[in-house]
Design brief:
about 550 residues; 2 domains; GTPase activator activity; five-stranded antiparallel sheet; elongated; alpha/beta
Length: about 550
C-alpha cells in the first residue's frame, strides 16, 4: 500500500521507521518557529510626578499593568540631575539595566535631553524594550545596546541644537532684565548661567541684546512645572520612528533564530562555489528557511484547497478528479517533494546546476514563484535579478535568466531551455544521468523518503551540494600543489581522476565559468547538456 505525504509518495514502512521520520515533518519543527514579540516604549519621568507615556510599539504577553510597570521603571536610579550646579553635566550619558517585571524581561535605557524651559535645563527619559524570553532579551542587550543608544543620541542631539538657540535667548533676556532692575539675585543666576554658556561655547560678552526681552523676576526665579510636551524638544520624527521600528522588527523573535545568530557565524573564504547567492553564509540561509512558512505557500492535498487542474489549468468546478490529455490525475502542490514524487526533480536540478534556464509554465504564477524561490537556493552564483516573471515569453529572451515563470511560450527554438510545463503536465529539457551526483547523492531515495519536511529537505540538498562542491575544489587544490597545470577543459576531462563521474561535466563546467565570470550577467553556455541528451516526460 502506498501512502501520500503531501505529494511525496513512499512505500509502506514499519512503525519504527514511521516514528523516526516524524521527527522530520514540519509539525515537529513548530517549536523552532514559535515567535515571541517585543514591546517597546519611551517614558518621561520627573521628580514628584507620575511617569508619562511618550511613544510605544508592539505588545508582550505577561505585561498587563503598564502603569505599575512605568512606576517600577522610575524607581531605578536615573542619570544624575543638574539641580546641583556645582556638578553640571549636559552631555549625553545612559544608564542601562536588564530586569524582570511580571514574567516579562526588559532592557531599560535611561537618558536625558536638554530643554531651556525645564528645571536644571534637562528632562529625563527612559527607553524600554521587553520580551517574554530571557535569552532573546539578553541577546538584545549584548548585541544591540550600542545601536539603540546611537538612535537615542539622535533625540538628544536634536534637543541640543534647539537648546543652544533658546539658552542664548534666555541669557539675553536675563542680562537685559538685570540691566533694568539691578536685581542681585538675578545677577547671581546670570553668573551660574555663564558656566553653562561656556560649555556650549557661547560668549556672554557677544550676546545680542536686541533679541533679549525684559521679563519679570518671577520668570527667572519660579520653577515652571507646566512644561511643553517633550515631543517638541526631541522631535519624534518619521525618520527616527521608522529606524527604531525597523530595528525592533529585525530582532530575532524565535529561540532558534537567537541561537543561530548568537552562536553560529560561518563564512567560508574563497575559493568557494556560492549557491543561492548567500556567499556561503550558512547561518543566514538557515534563518531564512526556518522563518519561511511553506505550509501557507503550498496547498495540501488533504485539504479542500487542493489544486485540481483541468486541461486549461483552472480548478475543476465539479470537484471531480479530472484527467489531462495524457490520462493522469493533475494534482500539483508546488513543492520540491512533489517534484520528487513525480520523478522530475532530478531533471530540474541537473538543469539548474548546469546553467540551463528552467522555465515554469503555469497559470498559478504566485505559487510557481514560491517554488522558484526555494529551488533557487540550489542555483550556482544566483542573484535575485536572474528571475523573470512574464505572461508571454520568447525563448531567446529567457537565456539570460536562471528561472522564468510564464503562462505562454512562443513557438520557436526551445532546445536550450528546460521547460516544466504545469499546464500540459510535461517536462521537456535536459535529462539527468544515473551516475550523476544529483541522482546518486542529492536525491537518494534512502534519505529522501524519510524527510517529510520541505524545510529539512531543502537544507539537506543545500548541505550535500555544498559538501560536494568543496570536495571538488579540494581536489583541484591538491592537483595544483603537486604541480599539475590544468586548463579548464583538462580539468573537466579529469573528473574521473577527481573521484567524480564524467556525467557531471556540464555542472562543473558551468560552475567554473561562473567562478571566473567578471560580468554582472550569468554565463550562457550553449549546448551544455547532459550525456543523456534532451528528455521529454509526462509529469
Amino acid at each position: 500500500m502506498r501512502k501520500s505525504l503531501g505529494g511525496f509518495y513512499t512505500g509502506a514502512s514499519s512503525s519504527a521507521s514511521r516514528a523516526s521520520s516524524s521527527f522530520f515533518d514540519d509539525d515537529s519543527l513548530q517549536f523552532l518557529s514559535d515567535q515571541k514579540y517585543y514591546y517597546s516604549a519611551i517614558y518621561e519621568f520627573s521628580q514628584g510626578e507620575a511617569p508619562k507615556l511618550i511613544w510605544e510599539y508592539g505588545s508582550v504577553n505577561g505585561m498587563s499593568e503598564m502603569g505599575s510597570f512605568m512606576q517600577f521603571l522610575i524607581n531605578t536610579p536615573a542619570p544624575k540631575s543638574n539641580d546641583n550646579n556645582n556638578n553640571i553635566d549636559f552631555t549625553f550619558g545612559v544608564t542601562s539595566i536588564v530586569s524582570t517585571f511580571e514574567g516579562a524581561h526588559f532592557l531599560a535605557i535611561y537618558f536625558q535631553v536638554l530643554d531651556s524651559q525645564a528645571r536644571g535645563f534637562t528632562r529625563h527619559l527612559v527607553f524600554v524594550i521587553a520580551n517574554q524570553s530571557r535569552d532573546l532579551l539578553n541577546f538584545c542587550y549584548s548585541k544591540y545596546l550600542k545601536t539603540f543608544t546611537k538612535l537615542l543620541y539622535g533625540l538628544y542631539e536634536y534637543s541640543e541644537r534647539n537648546f543652544k538657540v533658546e539658552i542664548k535667548e534666555y541669557a539675553e533676556s536675563l542680562q537685559k532684565t538685570i540691566t533694568m532692575s539691578q536685581n542681585q539675585t538675578l545677577s547671581d543666576k546670570l553668573l551660574e548661567l555663564t558656566k553653562i554658556l561656556l560649555i556650549f561655547n557661547i560668549d556672554i560678552t557677544n550676546l545680542d541684546s536686541e533679541k533679549g526681552q525684559i521679563k519679570t523676576s518671577d520668570y527667572f526665579n519660579i520653577v515652571n512645572n507646566e512644561l511643553r510636551p517633550v515631543e517638541v524638544v526631541i522631535d519624534l520624527s518619521y525618520v527616527f520612528l521608522s529606524e527604531i521600528i525597523m530595528l525592533i522588527e529585525s530582532l530575532p523573535k524565535t529561540e532558534t533564530k537567537f541561537a543561530i545568530i548568537s552562536q553560529i557565524d560561518i563564512f567560508e573564504e574563497n575559493p568557494t562555489i556560492d549557491f543561492g547567492g548567500y556567499n556561503n553564509k550558512y547561518s543566514e540561509l538557515v534563518l531564512n528557511i526556518m522563518n519561511s512558512n511553506y505550509d501557507e505557500e503550498i496547498p495540501s492535498e488533504t485539504q479542500n484547497n487542493s489544486i485540481l487542474y483541468d486541461d486549461s489549468n483552472s480548478i475543476n468546478s465539479n470537484g471531480m478528479n479530472s484527467k489531462n490529455k495524457h490520462g493522469y490525475y493533475q494534482y500539483f502542490n508546488y513543492s520540491l517533494k512533489e517534484l520528487v514524487s513525480r520523478h522530475v526533480f532530478n531533471y530540474c536540478l541537473f538543469s539548474i546546476l548546469s546553467g540551463r534556464t528552467l522555465v515554469i509554465r503555469s497559470n498559478q504564477t504566485s505559487k510557481a514563484l514560491s517554488l522558484v524561490k526555494k529551488i533557487s537556493i540550489l542555483s550556482p552564483f544566483f542573484k535575485p535579478e536572474f528571475i523573470l516573471q512574464k505572461d508571454t515569453v520568447d525563448p531567446s529572451e529567457c537565456l539570460k535568466y536562471a528561472f522564468v515563470i510564464t503562462k505562454n511560450i512562443l513557438d520557436s527554438d526551445k532546445k536550450n531551455l528546460s521547460i516544466l510545463d504545469l499546464i500540459s503536465m510535461v517536462y521537456s529539457g535536459d535529462g539527468c544521468p544515473q551516475k550523476s551526483f544529483v541522482a546518486c547523492e542529492l536525491c537518494r531515495e534512502q534519505v529522501v523518503n524519510h524527510i517529510e519536511s520541505e524545510k529539512v529537505f531543502l537544507l539537506h540538498l543545500y548541505s550535500t551540494l555544498n559538501r560536494i562542491s568543496i570536495r571538488f575544489l579540494i581536489k583541484l587544490s591538491e592537483y595544483s600543489k603537486i604541480g599539475k597545470i590544468l586548463t579548464k577543459d583538462k580539468m573537466l576531462t579529469s573528473l574521473k581522476e577527481f573521484g567524480f563521474s564524467p556525467d557531471d561535466e556540464p555542472i562543473f563546467r558551468y560552475c567554473i565559468h561562473c567562478y571566473f565570470n567578471k560580468q554582472h550577467t550569468r554565463p550562457i553556455l550553449m549546448n551544455n547538456i547532459s550525456r543523456g541528451g534532451l528528455t521529454l516526460i509526462t509529469i
